Amino acid sequence: MSEFQYLTPGKTTLFKDRYVTKVTECITPYTKGAKGDIGIIGLPASKSSISPSLASDAPRTIRNALGAYSTFSGENHVDYKDTPMIDFGDVHIHPTNLEETTERLYSSVKEMIQTNSCKKYIILGGDHGVSYPSIRAFQEHYGRIGVIQWDAHHDVRNFEDGGRTNGTPFRSLLEGGFIKGEDLMQVGIRDYANAQEYHEYVLSHGVAVYTMDDVDRVGIVSIIQQGIERLAQKVDFIYLSVDMDVVDQAFAPGCPAIGPGGLTSRELLSSIQAAKSHPKVKAMDIVEIDPSKDVRDITSRLAAHVMLRFMYT
Length: 313
Fold this sequence. Notes:
By secondary structure, the chain is an alpha/beta fold. The chain has one domain (23-311): 3-Layer(aba) Sandwich (Arginase, Chain A). 32% of the residues lie in helices and 19% in strands. It has 9 helices and 11 strands. The strands form 2 sheets. It has a 9-stranded parallel β-sheet with strand order 1-5-2-6-11-10-7-8-9, with helices on both faces. Helix 1 packs across helix 9 (298-311).
């Protein structure tokens, strides 16, 4: 029994409502043999970013943001407090060697998958460069993989001007043979954010490209639903890659490459809801949040909501 009545040495003092379960209360660290519905891993790498970025801090801020939300969905009238989540922690990246860091990210995601602990996985970046080793690991384990990429940019820059960066993950995947162009779908591509060379590159590889104009005309949910059904007929596994700069800067100020004319937060959430409902959707990454550029953790809190839409049915 403690000698103190109100002091809690070594612990954070938090208000506790007996009827409220916070999402963070359902997350436990990985132990051998553990089983859960959702696996979470942090890939805190951002040194390959072509713009100054502290996106390596995002896994921490997104996890912290989960503590602001309860497990109860009034819309579904379900409390998800019994949905177990396993946290595999963050990958220890190399301080200077980018190739070594990429290899560590790949092997760590691979090791997580091989535990066979969870039904679905969430990967917290980092910049978008982490998607290359992550998707590669999932493809090698599960087979033919389809990818839906929420992004303002194509992310197929050339290697000659900077090597492998956060602007090259999908070029790396396409040219490495880890995904087929017809199995990649890009949503939210924004005007005046890409070069003509890269637009033509993705089209020549058979990538399905949906711009913000398409989103305005057709609707984000319809685009996602049609895309999921098309991919599901061909692939073994579907991976969602969410670059938060797909969202308008008004709703996601903490992205290194912010800009106007993107998705609203509601559009992003409804599209994740539409995508995750298909049984072949098993993994999602969230990338490109720089907490040092954010305002009151607006972007990390939105990312936490993206996680909730993906985790809970």
